[in-house]
Design brief:
Radius of gyration: 35 Å
Number of strands: 18
Number of helices: 3
Order of helices and strands: EHHEEEEEEEEEEHEEEEEEE
CATH topology of one domain: Lipoxygenase-1
Organism: Tropicimonas sediminicola
Distance between the termini: 40 Å
Protein name: Translocase
Oligomer: single chain
Structural class: mainly beta
Strand content: 35-45%
Largest sheet: 6 strands, mixed
Length: 335
Amino acid sequence: MQTSRRAVMAGSVFLVALATGYVMQNGDAVAYRFAGGQELSEAPQSMQELQALQLTAARARTDLGIPEEPRLVSLATPAPEAFARAPLPDAGLSELQVEPGMGLSAFGMPCDVTLTASPAPAAMVRLSLRAACNAGEPVTLRHGALTFTEITGTDGHLDLDVPALSARAEFEARLLDGTIVEARAEVPDAGGYERVALQWQGSTGLGLHAFEFGAGYGEPGHVHLGAAHGPDRARVRGAGYLTQLGNDAAPGGWVSEVYSFPAADARSSGAVQITVEAEVTRATCGRELAAQTLQPTAAGTQDVVELSLAVPACDAVGEFLVLDNLVPDVQVAAN
């Protein structure tokens, strides 16, 4: 089925049981094993023989240390010494220093919040947030003008890779309670990448598309969320990839898409055309959408362009609006 797309000129855009088991043997079997191994081939013929057999079984039980009758031990009294639990090995938990007044999570971890940033391949930055007392909460992260909202895990952790928009990549994380933590990473190869970002709030149907060196829709050079590839494409093939950041399930959450091309390792010359598409959905039809495009500059800043788009009425649901010429083509020279 062919998808309908409308071209929109830039001018019209204002833009987780422990089981125990046991084996039981009856008295006759125990008596047999410990009374010389004689099979009980016939029933005892007299009361004396019966008493002798019972005495043999009782002795066997005594030799094994098995009580003749189970003993009930009151839970209010200490367990017999024979059953006392051996001390557990020291797991090092005693070394956990908790300062007076420091809050603890449901798992007993301190409530301090940390953010670390370290360089990763393809001019990416690995961000690691630790916020034990903020599990399952939204956190908004910023890298310059680039903004996106994620949700921490059940342990309050968050790990993700973010494209560096500058060699000195600075990041900020703001939690729901207003706590702010910062981190910085040096990414020397960031200058060898051409990057373009599109960001918005909520569910909008927006998406960033890159057409490398004349590629058409669905062709190998068409990079978008459905064919995002990853940093390995840049390092191995010298081609671009797309990174999506953010979670629109968070109320008012920011989502960003960043297209990256390794210009310093390009193997072809030409242009990469960047377009923005907006799918007309039941949630967006008849609305006005707001978004931003970002492009890093040689000075380490980012050019930001505000977009505002009027989405057609709901009889156009399923169609796509294509916004051309919002971002200049990325010019690439082979190296």
